[in-house]
Amino acid sequence: MVFEKVLIANRGEIALRVIRTCRELGLRTVAVHSEIDAEALHTRLADEAICIGPADPSRSYLHIPAIIAAAEITGADAVHPGYGFLSENPEFAETCAQCGLEFIGPLPEQMRLWGDKVSARAMAKSLGLPTLDGTELIEDIEDAVRKAKGLGFPVLLKASGGGGGRGMHVLHSKEELRAVFETARAESRAAFGNDALYFEKFLERPRHIEFQILGDKQGNIHVLGERECSIQRRHQKILEEAPSVALTDEMRRDMSATVRRAMAEAGYLSAGTLEFLLDERGELTFLEMNPRIQVEHPVTELVMGIDLIGEQIRIAEGRPLELPAEPLTPRGHAIECRINAEDPDTFAPSPGVITELHMAGGTGVRVDSGIYGGGRVPPHYDPLIAKLIVHAPTRVQAIAKMRRALSETLIGGIRTNIPLHKRILEHPAFEEGRISTKFLDELYTERMLTAPVRH
Amino acid sequence: MKLDLEQLRELIRLLDEANLTEIEVEHDDDRIRVRRDPAPLPAAAGVESVAPITAQGPEPTNAASAPDDDEGAYVTSPFVGTFYRSPSPDGAPFVDVGDSVVPGQVLCIVEAMKLMNEIEAEAAGTILEVLVESGKPVEYGDRLFRIEMG
Questions:
Q1: DSSP of A339-362, one letter per residue?
Q2: CB contact, 8 Å: B142 with chain A?
Q3: ipTM for the complex shown
Q4: pTM of the full predicted structure?
Q5: Taking CA atoms, which of A183, A366, A408, B60 is between 20 and 30 Å from B44?
Q6: pLDDT tens column, B87-141
Q7: What pLDDT does residue A427 have?
């Protein structure tokens, strides 16, 4: 099947990103938008635009019947969900199929499997992917002490029913464990209606490394190298790069082969990302699998010389991919800074009208954004307004290019996290590639310690 | 080329149905051009037609609704879908211009995902204008009827 018209069930920079590839492929595009996004860039740049509901996402971008009806009245033959919103919703993918629309993404059963952390971990283990050491459920305090010693401190005490970073305790000794165990159990019961607890090995300063894959309808899995996304705040990625300085060619080759084998066995379709933690001894362990295109996909596109959205579309059409010849090896270095409409110090959201805008340009600079001068950043959605991405022959040159690009970027009327990006890129530890998921916390602690004392 | 009123009507209908902004017909030495201002939505095709980045009227009104007086209130579509004035293709319309309506009375159907959603009047009043043609697609918030309240 060859598509003629694609509906993009998203907004902001990712909707623009999909529109761009569609246009290059000669496909017509349909934007869907909420009332408050009537003037948004995706609404204006698509060939057709349909208002699907009010600003509240649950009544517009998350409202499946409205999106399907928009596809019906415009005669779209495929739907690209972007990331977030309905991108990992198996019911949406199923409804698309029932209505004769091709969903550009993985199959619903794969979203269910990989969307649940427990089943994803079990699946990963059965597919031969390395997983973080953990224990069975804990019976009582004596059992807890035994299990924690077996695993080796520090350990992470986790609620089986928890999620989103809640219900977790980092424990460094059995004294700490004895002190919190009963409280943790009571908390878990109160918060999740379930007091089942277990341990996981706690990594003090891990790096976040993820592998991009593409699975086609012919059953092939292509592994497109890794991205390093260790610069995070509260599990939200801020800055990503490819390749990672922490992987040797051998580690990259070995893990790519493991991932290819595992995901071929799982029969994975479309774009997906396997996230890993890399500990200080150089061991990669599976964290989770994201069955969708990711925000940070452009760094992979730049170093691998591919269009991941284009490949997703070709996969959905059942056509052969247009990848460079094997082996797929990264060329040069790419960095992405996520520009958020938020205060760089307090992280408070900063919606409003963009009074003036100048985005960086020049050699090796790519901008994926959903904003324009005079446009409005509504308070109802994600604060990500633009992504600044650079590509250079080496990491040192990429850092210099990103500093230059950030210095050219001018966004007036709202606050953005550009000052934070500048601080990260100027930090000696970042320059040397000595980073971990604790980098931002440590950067803020350092700033507090070195900040001039006010009298 | 002799062009009668019926042929002209046909051209205008074609313009509307195909959602074009201009049609030009040339025959021997005669030429006729029918054009209109582009409808705000759905956006016209092609890269060239991308709207300039300036503020424009925020109202996502359907091309058919262009009342220039402020008299009356509007019933807007609560869904994206296809607008139907009658319960069946051959049936009589639920309401027509001049009809009085009471709260809860069905005014039309907006079909989405094969579901026929009946749109009811929220207040009593008289239908002044039907703003969308039966069978046409409507967006969320499109004006469907103009009603004189009371």
A1: EESB-TTT--B--EE--EEE---S
A2: yes
A3: 0.73
A4: 0.81
A5: A366
A6: 988 899 999 999 999 999 999 999 988 888 999 999 999 999 999 999 999 999 9
A7: 96
Long-range contacts of A34-40 (CB under 8 A, 24+ apart): A34/A59, A34/A60, A34/A61, A34/A380, A35/A60, A35/B60, A35/B140, A35/B141, A36/A376, A36/A378, A36/A380, A37/A11, A37/A378, A38/B58, A38/B60, A39/A375, A39/A376, A39/B55, A39/B56, A39/B58, A40/A11, A40/A12, A40/A370, A40/A375
Active-site residue flag, A292: yes
Whether A219 has its CB under 8 Å from any CB of chain B: the answer is no
The answer to whether residue A455 scores a pLDDT higher than 70 is: no
pLDDT of residue B51: 33
**Measured between CB atoms, which of B51, B53, B140 is closest to A373?**
B53
CA distance A95 to A89: 10
Distances (CA, A) of A110 to A123, A217, A289, A297, A377: 11, 14, 10, 20, 34
Choice among A11, A185, A292, A415 that is catalytic: A292
Question: Which positions 44-73 of B are in contact with A (Cβ < 8 Å)?
Answer: 45-47, 50-51, 53-56, 58, 60
Chain A residues touching residue B83 (CB < 8 angstroms): none
Which residue on chain A is closest to B54 by alpha carbon?
A374
Fold for A207-450, please state it.
D-amino Acid Aminotransferase; Chain A, domain 1 (3.30.470)
Find the Cα–Cα–Cα–Cα dihedral A218, A219, A223, A228, rounded to 10°: 110
Asked if A52 reaches chain B (Cβ–Cβ under 8 Å), the answer is: yes
Q: Which chain B residues touch A73 with a CB distance below 8 Å? A: 80-82, 137-138
Task: Provide the mean pLDDT of chain A.
Answer: 93
Structural domain boundaries in chain A: 5-104, 141-201, 207-450
CATH code for the part of the protein at A5-104: 3.40.50.20
Please tell me which residue of chain A has the smallest CA distance to B42: A48
- pLDDT at residue number A131: 92
- Minimum mean pLDDT among A65-69, A354-358, B66-70: which range? B66-70
**Range A141-201: architecture per CATH:** 2-Layer Sandwich (3.30)
Cβ contact A69–B79 (<8 Å): yes
How many CB pairs below 8 A link A and B? 77
Q: In chain B, which residues have their Cβ closer than 8 Å to the Cβ of A369?
A: none
Domain ranges of chain B: 5-38, 73-149
What is the pLDDT, as a whole number, of residue A454? Answer: 46
- What's the confidence (pLDDT) of residue B20? 67
Domain B73-149 CATH class label: mainly beta
Which of A23, A51, A72 shows the shortest C-beta gap to B141? A51
Query: In chain A, which residues have their Cβ closer than 8 Å to the Cβ of B115?
Result: 65
